[in-house]
Amino acid sequence: MDTSHRWRIPAGQRLLFEDFDDGIVAFDTAVGATHLLNVSAAETLAIIEAAPDLATDDIHRRLLARLEIGEDALPYDSLQELLAHLEDLGLVAVRTA
Fold first, then answer.
1. Pseudo-torsion of CA 86, 51, 60, 34, nearest 10°?
2. What pLDDT digit, counting tens, does each position of 11-57 carry?
3. What is the CB neighbour count within 10 angstroms for residue 72?
4. Fewest CB within a 10 Å sphere: which of 5, 22, 24, 30?
């Protein structure tokens, strides 16, 4: 995945979150689907929602700070895989020119 990608929540989409003991559920209002997320995925979505068009490396830095963890706990490659998975689910999109 290109590290220069800039991420956003797709236009017209609204995500609603609910925190349960076994994970965080996100309801995608655009398609009526629910997704069970781990903390890293939910925080990644929250970062992108709050600051659209961040580059992957900026998201990584913010995510590590929010979770108060080091890069050894969440390597950059893991975030790239997570973003690709969230994109496959239609929860995030790469900014188009």
1. -20
2. 888 899 999 888 899 998 888 999 999 999 999 999 999 999 999 99
3. 6
4. 22
- Within a 13 Å sphere around the CA of 60, how many CA atoms are in the beta-carbon half? 20
Identify the CA nearest to 79 among candidates 64, 93, 65, 66: 64
**Closest to 55 (Cα-Cα) out of 41, 75, 76:** 76
Q: Count the Cβ atoms, other than its own, within 10 Å of residue 33.
A: 12
DSSP state at residue 44: H
Distance set, CA 68 to CA 15, 27, 61 (Å) = 24, 26, 10
Model-level pTM? Answer: 0.90
